[in-house]
Amino acid sequence: MDHFQYRDGVMHAEDLPLPVIAEQVGTPCYVYSRATLERHARVFREGLEKAGDIHLAFAVKANPNLAVLRILANQGYGADVVSGGELERALAAGMKAEDIVFSGVGKSRSELLLGLDRGIGQFNLESEEEGIMLAEIAAARGQKAPATLRVNPDVDAGTHAKISTGKKENKFGVAIDIAPDIYQRLSELDGLDLRGVAVHIGSQLQQLEPLEKCYERMGQLVEQLRGAGHEITHVDLGGGLGVPYTPDENPPSPADYGDMVARVTKGWNVTLMFEPGRVIAGNSGVMMTQVIRIKPGVNSDFVIVDAAMNDLMRPAIYDAWHHFEAVRPTGETMTASIVGPICESSDIFAKEREVDRVVTDDLGIFRTAGAYGATMANTYNSRPLVPEVLVDGDRYAVVAERIEPATIMAAEHVPDWLKQGG
Fold first, then answer.
1. pLDDT at 169
2. Are residues 215 and 315 in the same domain?
3. Which domain CATH number covers 14?
4. Sites of the modification N6-(pyridoxal phosphate)lysine (predicted)?
5. What angle do CA 98, 112, 116 make, to 5 degrees?
6. 343 in active site
7. pLDDT confidence band for 54 (50 / 70 / 90)
8. Does position 166 have pLDDT exceeding 70, yes or no?
């Protein structure tokens, strides 16, 4: 459930008509619903109540907006971060350092230092070499870095190839068959407090079977590590639960997921850690756009909108579906391709799809844009960086300004020797 609904024929975000935002903020823009974020955070937590001792860390990469993170911090969520910048964002938003998990395959020395300086709760180590580096840095400071070893279980998540992370050919974690030996060597290093293992097999999962298979393998690994004398107190089960983008998608609910987790992990006697992202933020946001014009095409008309692939990258890079709706639908439909102004054939949101009939200057929305939307936006073709708006009841605030090309150009410099014709 989300809080984007029609009232009197006009799409609202909670109690606010979207045309009000379009008039005052302009388009394109992202619109988030506080009530939806809070509801999804609560439902996910409630779904895992049967699993015992749990730790929830929102995957910041899904939506790093400070206002969004503050809402989730207020809901008791920590943060799963994959860069020093995300770590600082999480702290700035009010998330507790001890509730921050630092994941990611390429943590630099400076980022490891930053994590230690900020006193974060856990590093998820992606390789033996990373563990050795972290141990050396921590030991030199008289510290022990809390850490888990991320394992690659060689499980196909059944999702898009570009968001799969748990197959043997993926770059993440260490192969599960060599994990015990690596774990043993890392556990002997003075600078590490190695306390468990971590796993994450992909994003936008539509079935529980791959996750269950993965968790069963992790349970066997935990048993093996304990048999070797290791104390295992934490297991990070990652994230990846999907959301419905298309009408025929019906991903597992947090309650169904929680039932499976409780059953598979029974008897582990650990703190179970989770890193939800899309399942919290996806349906909490839409991207609003305005129709520039309708262009006749050979097979169907082109609806040219002011949003583009630089504002919402997922359709261009994943062939992802985002449902399009008119803000003021007439009840009529049309078959059309919805495209943006960028000079790329991949700048297309929907190809020959039946959609609400729209005309020039009409407003429309792309649904399920609260995750991996604004966070992946860029300024290709020297376009402005898309703004973000948060709605709370009948009020709103701009929580990320539109960054105009002039502001971006101000950060660029032509050297004097070029100005002089050198």
1. 53
2. no
3. 2.40.37.10
4. 61
5. 40
6. yes
7. very high
8. no
